[in-house]
Write a structure and sequence with these properties.
The protein is mainly α. 63% of the residues lie in helices and 8% in strands. The protein contains 7 helices and 3 strands. The protein has helices at residues 5-34, 38-43, 53-73, 88-103, 107-113, 133-159, 165-169, and strands at residues 75-77, 117-122, 127-132. Strands 1-2-3 form a 3-stranded mixed β-sheet. The longest helix has 30 residues, at 5-34. 28% of the residues are buried.
Length: 178
């Protein structure tokens, strides 16, 4: 049985975004226990030339609900100067918004995107690319989505937050007894 574009993209994005959102609750408890400020959390990064935690969250939004909305419109226009979430409340709200937006996407809508043109543009970098919608979602969006979620997770592990693979995976879609 072939898998639909919807099934290849949306349920896993919801699962992993919700998992990251749940991790942020643990992060707040960790920060309170360790005396870390919100600025220290949001500014934490793996290495100097990588984005900090709040920008990783912003990139997660870009490579999930914003990418789906852009695919609807046929254009992914990126503004690298857009500010990332300013605090934990904004990071949580951004992830909650992603989950809500993704839950509103229907399988029929996703299947109708197949074959549509999508223009990708970052004017500040002079970058322009054209994709078929499904290629954009599967070859650009999904890998970037997982990259930024994994990097956020790794930043938090590096800080010492007690999270593991189960936290990253979230609620698995397991087969239930018939």
């Amino acid at each position: 049985m072939p898998i639909s574009l919807y099934d290849a993209v949306i349920p896993t994005m919801i699962q992993i975004t919700q998992a990251l959102r749940n991790v942020l609750d643990k992060v707040e408890a960790f920060a309170a226990e360790k005396g870390l400020t919100e600025a220290e959390l949001l500014g934490a990064r793996l290495i100097d030339d990588m984005f900090p935690l709040n920008k990783q969250i912003a990139c997660t939004v870009l490579n999930s609900s914003y990418a789906i909305e852009s695919t609807r419109k046929g254009e992914f226009l990126l503004d690298p100067t857009a500010p990332p979430p300013a605090d934990m409340t904004e990071m949580k709200a951004a992830l909650d918004d992603v989950v809500a937006a993704l839950k509103a996407v229907t399988p029929e809508e996703m299947e109708a995107m197949i074959g549509r043109n999508l223009h990708y543009s970052i004017p500040a970098f002079g970058l322009e690319m054209d994709y078929a919608a499904e290629d954009f979602l599967l070859s650009y969006v999904q890998p970037n989505f997982f990259f930024h979620i994994t990097t956020a997770y790794d930043i938090l592990r590096g800080l010492g937050v007690s999270i593991g693979k189960r936290d990253f995976l979230g609620q698995l879609r397991i087969k239930t007894a018939a």
